[in-house]
Write a structure and sequence with these properties.
single chain, alpha+beta, 4-stranded mixed beta sheet, two-stranded antiparallel ribbon
Length: 268
């Protein structure tokens, strides 16, 4: 299986282990991500997993879904309300079961596909490899809110290197979506992987650099933590600007959470 598809499957299974025994009441807890419940987060992950799968195997179904989604999310109807309606308010362990069955079916099909084949998405088309890597990133990032509300310290694996790469590759996008020119040079990264391995990217630069734990870099670029709530060492104006507005996902400009607003619920 393509490594990125295996990584997506492994990350999904880690999330499943987190939610498999939650009660209906626990699934309705509001998280620090825009007040979304755990149910709302899983619906979101499941629906866009389905959309990615359709982009691979049934493009006409993907286009029909995307048209419906864009119409359904206009005006006062938010994404989470559209998504709840789309799958008949599926919730609790029934939702967990359906979500898991689907990603277990989806991952091997992505894993067996030509990694370079182009598939449709909301913006420009992307490669199959990029598509499943994006699903890994979104599943990983949204799951952080679940770990936090449950008060569970996350144990990451080196598969988050995929997210580090997305974060680095969207350096220019971060500035573009905020209406700015991307300053050069791109900062040098020196990150400690969950395994303890040291990952480095770019040319060594004492004036523009970011050092620290890879998982904290991933949290910042996916906007699950404010840079002030991490121990990342940020040096230089380019690095400082980037970490203040980092955004590795598509869509309009989003502001990172305010300092202190996204953290593990130690009282849970």
């Amino acid at each position: 299986m393509m490594q990125q598809a295996q990584d997506f499957l492994d990350e999904s299974e880690a999330i499943y282990a987190l939610v498999q025994s939650l009660s209906a009441e626990q699934m309705e807890q509001e998280t620090a991500f825009k007040g979304w419940t755990i149910n709302a987060i899983l619906r979101h992950l499941h629906i866009w997993n389905m959309a990615a799968y359709w982009s691979l195997n049934a493009p006409e179904k993907f286009h029909a879904f995307f048209k419906q989604a864009m119409a359904g999310m206009k005006g006062q109807t938010s994404m989470r309300f559209f998504e709840a309606e789309y799958i008949d308010n599926l919730s609790g362990q029934e939702l967990v079961k359906i979500w898991r069955e689907f990603y277990q079916k989806m991952a091997p099909e992505f894993g067996a596909a030509d990694p370079s084949m182009r598939v449709e998405w909301a913006g420009p088309s992307m490669s199959v490899r990029s598509s499943i890597t994006a699903r890994l990133m979104e599943n990983w990032s949204h799951a952080q809110a679940i770990y936090d509300i449950l008060g569970i310290a996350r144990v990451n694996a080196d598969r988050i290197r995929n997210i580090v790469m997305i974060g680095l590759n969207t350096y220019g996008w971060t500035f573009k979506v905020n209406g700015k020119e991307a300053p050069q040079p791109v900062p040098y990264l020196k990150l400690t992987a969950p395994s303890g391995e040291i990952w480095t990217y770019g040319d060594k630069n004492e004036e523009e650099r970011i050092e620290g734990f890879a998982e904290e870099f991933c949290q910042v670029v996916t906007q699950t933590r404010n840079i002030a709530d991490t121990d990342l060492q940020v040096t230089g104006p380019n690095a400082t600007q980037w970490m203040a507005i980092a955004q590795c996902f598509a869509g309009g400009a989003e502001q990172p959470p305010a300092p202190g607003t996204r953290s593990m619920n130690n009282a849970a």
